[in-house]
């Protein structure tokens, strides 16, 4: 039995999305329990879910707003649904938590309550993007850290490998380092140094490091995990969302332009619906906050019930497959590489940044 | 009369793309002349272009290969078509140069022969991406500089404004600073400092600074110019190309899946061809290397004749509209802001990075 704590109040939509998602999730997961965290008066309106024998309401009087500064979320709203939900994981009452609330606040409260794992300096946000192979590419960091060192990138690679191993069962997923070219001599000093650390880990069998990859490789599916600085990852993710939205709107406008194109849309229906399904970012909803002593999953703030359900499923799978232990073990195994043991002389010759 | 020097040998395709492009360009630009730089024996095969009264062949015995290291291109191939073409601009024989060759070599030789403008530390690569408004967003830097300071980003903003003003005639194009959020408190230290410099320049009327923008704003068309570090710009550009390619292939595969979808494709033809035209990255070919004492345009290495022709048109327009003087004037006007004159105390309070 896996119990997931749900911040029912978070996100742009709130309970109108999270509660129906919980209902659907319970139907498809007979082994799951949910802790529904939020204002009991609000949650009471969704009696069918709230009264489900596998659900329990955990009251929280406050809500972190999407635009609340981190300090407000941390210091002023100590009884927020977000914080109380994370507390459930800390207390061992739940094995994972899902929130669609403000990312900065979630990360800050998660770090504060749960702390980071030994060997991890900074947690990272990992999410999936669809690729041309019909699967998905896991990318991290997507915005938790805007000034990463080579060591941080290395830790992201180890944590990303654990995540993909837990979610897919493939023990040695391939890792690529996002760069401006494939050649090892390319990139910033941080990237070059990270490349050395990663190649070294590949030599000791700690990572299945492919090498440098470029932006287009995310969608080609060249590797299973793409590692990058949070600034770069965030821009790449949002640029891709922007482009996908533009293309989607363009197709919609063009098909409704004339009577002839409207007829075309009817004939093109199977393709358009396959396209819509394939590009449906809701299917990829549910980013993992990796590196904490507890499983925290972030749903997109604008998630509807279907999207939020995907985040619940991902959190469940991660808990079910022992993601936390996997991250812990891999970090413990790879950490000595960062401490200088077994480091190649190549790395030592790079000037300190 | 504007003369453009053409590196006819550069790129993956070489003369088979560049020469037909030159022919098409001459047809549509009766006021243009071309200097065709390359091996006379190879160019001789394209007699119609070579014998055009507005063309002159400038011999160069060597060719910079796409994978030549910068040092080889600089030191070993002193009679390369790329170098001889840039030399034409330095000598005043041409007002702009276009090459589809190796970007690193083009930038290095451009800097070596032409030097940078006063007030510019590093040249930047600027290119256009299609946006949802039906126009294009100019993004720089796209990969020339992987470790940018706030001052570099500021210079990119000034140069980008000059470029858009020259190509569109709009004297005060809007500038956005690419960040992980719109709020001024977000982002890396470099970005925050760049934001202060840019707001300051907006206050003195040197720039039409909109504020921070995110990755999706590139395609929304929120601003006319998006400024970023070359690493981030390169990843965003390539990720977008990768996504567009994936979507294009997906649509192709889906429409050819069954007899029914094939019929659908016929009915959807007007939409599909509009989509193809709109997403045709060839139309956006021709990146400007800004900050040099001469106009250098870079075509995509894989450009075909149509794409290369667009780069020629862009170089012609830039020369015709006095881009070089515009960059020079704007930099001269804005440079005192960087020297500390008129700097707000806000900036001085930021610790040196």
TrEMBL record, chains A, B:
GO terms for molecular function: phosphate:acyl-[acyl carrier protein] acyltransferase activity. Coiled coil: none annotated. It is an enzyme of class 2 (transferase). It catalyses: a fatty acyl-[ACP] + phosphate = an acyl phosphate + holo-[ACP]. GO terms for cellular component: cytoplasm. Gene3D superfamilies: Isopropylmalate Dehydrogenase. It is found in: Cytoplasm. Keywords: Acyltransferase, Cytoplasm, Lipid biosynthesis, Lipid metabolism, Phospholipid biosynthesis, Phospholipid metabolism, Transferase. One of its GO terms (biological process) is fatty acid biosynthetic process. InterPro entries: FA_synthesis, Phospholipid_synth_PlsX-like. Pathway: Lipid metabolism; phospholipid metabolism. Its EC number is 2.3.1.274. Belongs to the PlsX family. Homodimer. Probably interacts with PlsY. Catalyzes the reversible formation of acyl-phosphate (acyl-PO(4)) from acyl-[acyl-carrier-protein] (acyl-ACP). This enzyme utilizes acyl-ACP as fatty acyl donor, but not acyl-CoA. This is Phosphate acyltransferase. It comes from Hydrogenophaga crassostreae.
């Amino acid at each position: 039995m896996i119990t997931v704590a749900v911040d029912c109040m978070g996100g742009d939509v709130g309970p109108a999305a999270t509660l129906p998602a919980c209902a659907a999730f319970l139907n498809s997961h007979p082994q799951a329990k949910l802790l529904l965290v939020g204002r009991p008066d609000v949650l009471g309106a969704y009696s069918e879910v709230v009264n489900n024998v596998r659900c329990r309401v955990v009251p929280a009087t406050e809500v972190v707003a999407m635009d609340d500064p981190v300090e407000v979320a941390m210091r002023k709203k100590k009884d927020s649904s977000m914080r109380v939900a994370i507390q459930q994981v800390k207390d061992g009452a739940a094995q994972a938590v899902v929130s669609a609330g403000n990312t900065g606040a979630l990360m800050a409260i998660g770090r504060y309550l749960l702390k980071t794992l030994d060997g991890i300096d900074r947690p990272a946000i990992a999410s999936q993007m669809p690729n041309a192979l019909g699967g998905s590419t896991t990318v991290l960091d997507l915005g938790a850290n805007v000034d990463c060192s080579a060591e941080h990138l290395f830790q992201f690679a180890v944590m990303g490998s654990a995540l993909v191993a837990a979610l897919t069962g493939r023990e040695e997923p391939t890792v690529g380092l996002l760069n401006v070219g494939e050649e090892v001599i390319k990139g910033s000093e941080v990237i070059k140094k990270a490349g050395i650390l990663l190649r070294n880990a590949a030599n000791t069998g700690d990572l299945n490091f492919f090498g440098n990859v470029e932006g287009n490789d995310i969608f080609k599916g060249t590797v299973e995990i793409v590692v990058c600085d949070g600034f770069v990852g965030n821009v790449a993710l949002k640029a891709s969302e922007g482009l996908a939205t533009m293309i989607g709107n363009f197709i919609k406008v063009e098909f409704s332009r004339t009577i002839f194109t409207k007829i075309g849309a009817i004939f093109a229906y199977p393709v358009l619906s396959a396209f819509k399904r394939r590009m449906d970012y809701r299917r990829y909803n549910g980013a993992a906050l990796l590196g904490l002593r507890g499983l925290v999953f972030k749903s997109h703030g604008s998630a509807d019930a279907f999207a939020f359900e995907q985040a619940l499923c991902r959190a469940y799978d991660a808990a079910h497959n022992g993601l936390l232990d996997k991250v812990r073990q891999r970090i413990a195994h790879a950490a000595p590489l960062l401490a200088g043991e077994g480091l190649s002389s190549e790395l030592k010759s790079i000037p300190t940044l």
